Amino acid sequence: MKGFSRLVLFLTLIVLVVGFFMVLNRLSDIRGEIQTIQLALDLSGNSEGQIISEGEENEPSEDGSTEPQESSVVGIPTAIIFNTMSSPTLQPQTNIAVIVENVSKSDDGEVLVRLKAFTSEASSYSALPVQDLVEIVNLSSGVNQRPADVKGSFSSIPPKSVVSGTAVFRVSLTQRSIILQINADDEIRFYQFNFNKKTYKEIVLG
Q: What is the tens place of the pLDDT at every residue in 10-43?
């Protein structure tokens, strides 16, 4: 009986230790996310060393004005935050925090993925490989679609700065949903966007 009690106590201790480390690991993940969000807030509120690169300009109309033309665009704000290593084209490589701010689709089939990159850990210029970072999943062909164009100065980002821009995709005019693949360092993530309902959610594929 005494041996059984010791066994139960031993198993209980193991469960408690495993549970403690699981909670500790989760707290570490949450702390990292909070630090990334805090970084975004700090850099957004600090004009020193900050660079905002939209990469988009309005073309002047026939009367010389630069007012944007009206078009039907469905935009979905997001709260997707992740970290990735900078491109090896500029050394040394550094960790870059990335926020997906918005995903939208226009009537002409153009899908815009708006990104903001933070280089708080960089000691020199770095580059964000947007072409390899985001893709649209094609379940029928199995061949993902990469951006047709990237707007923004992601190829040369100063240290301790923030740069924003857009990855441009082109899909069918009638397509009302997409699956966005994000190739983060820690894992590959998938997000399904429904432009009819103006919603998105993280999903699991494969």
A: 667 676 666 665 655 555 555 555 555 555 555 4
